[in-house]
Write a structure and sequence with these properties.
Length: 605
Amino acid sequence: MQLLVTNSPFNQEQTELLNRLLPTLSETQKVWLNGYLSATAATTVSPAGLAAEVPSSAPAPAEPVTKDVTILFGSQTGNAQNLAKKSAKTLTDKGFHVTTLSMSDFKPNNIKKVKNLLIIVSTHGEGDPPDTALTFHEFLHGKRAPKLDDLSFSVLALGDSSYEFFCQTGKEFDERLEEIGGKRLFPRVDCDLDFEEPANEWLEGVLAELGNTSAAAAQSTANPNTATTAETEYSRSNPFLAEVLDIQNLNGRGSNKETLHIELSLEESGLTYKPGDSLGIYPKNDPELVELLLNKLSFNPEETVSINKKGEIRSIKEALLSEFEITVLTKPLLEKLAAYSTNEALQNLLKNQEQLKAYIDGRDLLDLVSEFGPWNFTAQNFISQLRKLPARLYSIASSYTANPEEVHLTIGAVRYNAHDRERKGVCSILCAERLNPGDKIPVFIQQNENFKLPENPDTPVIMIGPGTGIAPFRSFIQEREEIGAEGKSWLFFGDQHFVTDFLYQTEWQNYLKSGVLTKMNVAFSRDTAEKVYVQHRMLEHSKELFEWLQEGAAVYVCGDEKHMAHDVHETLISIIEKEGNLNREDAEKYLAAMQQDKRYQRDVY
């Protein structure tokens, strides 16, 4: 692109500068520059094409038209919500009128009034929408969805590529909005667990298309690494090194389990939390596994590699210990690494989806490099294909009001055997085997507005949390004791054996004696001939449980999603159907209404 001096209002020096600049600009930068010049021009152009100053008596140039933007988020653990808040701040700072809502709080029929829509949504379980997105998702995919010919939209999808239906909910929103007439403002971006950088790039693109703003401004707000908050504020991108105060095994001698109660100091961090929030921990990989991997690949442990786009350097040993995921295989990872192998078996595996899915399950990177070779990558090639080691989120098991400047966790140690090798959970085994009082670990608070106690402390609460799912309810009860809540409380807990696995037993007994906890039912599945779980205890007390629901009780479920949470959900519908004398459809509507009113909340994983 060249500017001709004879046809432009620029002098020779300006023309040379422009000729050097313009060929280096991306399409996004050109769009931004065009919008910026149009919006900020304070001059008029004479018929000869030469710029002339606007006379002081002339009216001030009109302000650029401010656009309305609606951001809807669907979040289970809080990531989508936090990104929505950061995106809203960026847009607001640049003069946009922004409405930010959870999908559960958005009236679906109002979609016809929206002109610019940004969707930020996670995918939960096996391709399912998060609880807060269910109603809106169902509406858009139903017959009542209106034509949206005047809508411009963009979708940011969050997911985990180790799951088969990666970012499925975001893809479904993106496709459906186009089907009913919407125009893509900017292409959908699918984010893996290390979502910060792609989320930042998505917002840059959205801002460039909306105009009236700077792509660089997007980076300063959307990217947590350059957030406008002070450097001393601790967050996901700037974790606090919390000192370990205490570690206890909650299980008795002879238990099949090892469940850790861990207390960490937040002193001088400025971090606070509310019941229902989670704590993120950045773990390190097992040094033994890293050593085996390096030996198998014949890499020098001290060879240096670049670990990010900034060019930060680490030894490959340190990079594998602290920076990259090595215990999970994903289809995208296998596809990337296959480019460095001529192994025919690996190429064939990638062509068969069912075999690929079966292979990935329970295997890690050491399995892959051991079974398929030879490999022709360098250490840098290898590292560049790996996914960042994600933080692990744990439901907080303490009330900040009751334990100021401390945070407590309940973590089950994960150990199992698969494919003739012992496997270990990355973070849980770090805590169980390599962490001691006095050590420090990097942590951050993950707010979860979708799992909160009722605003009215007189509201009855029903808490269902087997195993480590008990964690947030310890926080709930501590908080309710501190604030003197008068509402009734009912806890359902389950595990394998009464004698060895009754987590926090003494605490619950004391809360029952003091009246802070009104009622507790337990189920120990291995103590009886037939396995008994929490849902069976719920059915045994179906009449009273439904009476609590009719009184306005809020129901909370925490723990395993695939089995426990699904069974509890079905049990609740059965109880409502039976005790409310309703048919199945009306019972489902009853529970859906509770969910809409935030009286049915789940923290499941």
